[in-house]
Amino acid sequence: MRIRMLVDRTGTDNGITFPPRGGQIDVPDDVGAAMCAAGWAAPVAVPEPVETRAEPPTPAPEPAQDEPAEPAPAAEDPEPAQDEPEAHKLPHRSRAPRK
Q: In terms of residue numbers, what domain contains 21?
């Protein structure tokens, strides 16, 4: 709410420093209503912003359609890396002959 001060106020009220008499300030609605009711301020008409119809956005140009490139053949790995132990392979144990 915008108010016009009818009196001079010194200091701050809830962190708000008020202008001298005749000055205007935006305050919360409850503060402005209380000050107007006490005769310390008068409400000021604030013009509402006028909504205008926006122009439709212009579409972005479409990217050029190029021929898709052939995918590169997958590189074959001749041997797996020897850094890691092959946990899935157990060492071969010979069986004892059956009796």
A: 2-43
In a domain, 63, yes or no: no
The domain tally of the chain equals: 1
Beta bridge partners of 5: 41
For residue 10, give the nearest of 22, 2, 21 by alpha carbon: 21
d(CA 92, CA 81): 22
Residue 4 burial (CB < 10 Å; 0-12/13-18/19+)?
middle
Alpha carbons within 13 A on the beta-carbon side of 69: 3
State the pTM of this model.
0.47
pLDDT tens for each residue of 63-95: 777 666 676 666 665 665 565 555 555 665 666
* Nearest one of 61, 19, 68 to 40, comparing CA atoms: 19
